[in-house]
């Protein structure tokens, strides 16, 4: 078992190392599932086989010692230098390293797996596409059950939950590369006609209300950007615009169902297909979103982002829920 366990741990270490070095595309959900299954198997083996066997061995030592002392008592020998029985039992009952590194970790790994798969998952914001709502480095929580509970790895929905709504901030698997997670705001749901023309969002022919707000100072770019308060389906949030960026979409890919979209010098207009969503970043002129790579299928949805729990380089007052 020691050799087998060494090989198993080496396989996990090799996978993580190859992922870290960029040799393979890692899948954390799959890695966590496998770790839960493997450590769970060791935990069951420890509880129902290895631990009872060690207990029997320890009891045998105690019984043998007691029998030896009884025989010596009958012979009139009172003092016996036979060592500490309890210490010997402790050594026998001690969990070997290969169980300590597997069965011993199972409760922690199982709790993390259940929390991450079905309740809440932490994410770190890697880019500025959602500024000013979310800043680079924000550590956020994503609700995994609002839109329905999904099986880990397979991402198959097993409960319905509530449907996505315009204005929700959502984490999803990036359609061109599903191993990557993206975060954007839902601006179009199935059946909507979404237009972004001359830097104005229009849903089903109705311009989305927005009013000018104080300019936003981007500390990374060391410049000010125009900021607006936008009301999308009753969700009030702020967006940024950059006058130096043209309105038309440059470099849109040949994504599935691109025929549902038309591109002009003024921007883009798309009809959202059934089972798909149109996503945009709040930093409208600095966001790689549905305007460029198309619609997000329902099966790619991970969960609803709702809470900032830390950013080590921004004020603590930003901690809390957001729209």
Q: How does this model look, in words?
A:
This protein is an alpha+beta fold and 323 residues long. It has 2 domains: 2-114, no CATH class; 122-321, Umud Fragment, subunit A. Helix content is 30%, strand content 27%. The chain is built from 6 helices and 16 strands. The protein has helices spanning 2-20, 28-74, 85-93, 97-100, 106-118, 290-293; strands at residues 120-124, 139-143, 169-173, 181-188, 193-197, 200-203, 206-207, 210-218, 223-232, 235-241, 261-264, 267-271, 276-280, 296-297, 301-310, 320-321. Strands 1, 2, 3, 4, 13, 14, 15 and 16 form an 8-stranded antiparallel beta sheet that branches. Helix 2 (28-74) runs antiparallel to helix 5. The model has no long low-confidence stretch (mean pLDDT 92).
TL;DR?
The chain has six helices and 16 strands. It is α+β, with helices and mostly antiparallel strands and about 325 residues long.
Q: How would you summarize the topology of this molecule?
A:
Elements: H1 2-20, H2 28-74, H3 85-93, H4 97-100, H5 106-118, E1 120-124, E2 139-143, E3 169-173, E4 181-188, E5 193-197, E6 200-203, E7 206-207, E8 210-218, E9 223-232, E10 235-241, E11 261-264, E12 267-271, E13 276-280, H6 290-293, E14 296-297, E15 301-310, E16 320-321
Antiparallel strand pairs: 1-2, 2-15, 3-4, 3-15, 4-13, 5-6, 5-12, 6-7, 8-9, 9-10, 11-12, 13-14, 15-16
């Amino acid at each position: 078992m020691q050799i087998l366990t060494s090989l198993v741990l080496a396989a996990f270490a090799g996978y993580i190392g190859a992922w870290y070095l960029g040799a393979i595309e890692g899948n954390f959900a799959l890695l966590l599932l496998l770790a839960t299954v493997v450590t769970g198997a060791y935990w069951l083996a420890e509880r129902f086989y290895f631990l009872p066997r060690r207990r029997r061995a320890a009891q045998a030592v105690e019984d043998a010692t007691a029998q030896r002392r009884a025989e010596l008592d009958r012979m009139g020998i009172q003092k016996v230098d036979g060592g500490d029985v309890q210490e010997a039992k402790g050594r026998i009952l001690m969990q070997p390293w290969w169980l300590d590194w597997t069965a011993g970790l199972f409760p922690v790994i199982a709790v993390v797996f259940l929390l991450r798969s079905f309740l809440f998952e932490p994410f770190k914001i890697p880019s500025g596409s959602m500024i000013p709502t979310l800043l680079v480095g924000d550590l956020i929580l994503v609700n995994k059950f609002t839109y329905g509970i999904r099986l880990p790895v397979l991402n198959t929905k097993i409960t319905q939950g509530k449907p996505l709504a315009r204005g929700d901030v959502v984490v999803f698997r990036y359609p061109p590369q599903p191993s990557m997670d993206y975060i954007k705001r839902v601006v179009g749901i199935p059946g909507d006609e979404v237009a972004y023309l001359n830097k104005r969002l229009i849903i089903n022919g109705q311009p989305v209300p927005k009013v000018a707000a104080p300019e936003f100072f981007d500390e990374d770019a060391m410049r000010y950007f125009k900021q607006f308060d936008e009301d999308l389906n009753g969700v009030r949030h702020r967006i940024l615009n950059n006058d130096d960026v043209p309105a038309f979409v440059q470099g849109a890919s040949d994504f599935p169902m691109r025929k549902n979209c038309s591109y002009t010098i003024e921007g883009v207009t798309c009809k959202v297909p059934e089972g798909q969503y149109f996503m945009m970043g709040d930093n409208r002129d600095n966001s790689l979103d549905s305007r460029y790579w198309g619609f997000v299928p329902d099966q790619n949805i991970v969960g609803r982002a709702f809470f900032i729990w830390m950013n080590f380089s921004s004020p603590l007052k930003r901690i809390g829920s957001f729209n």
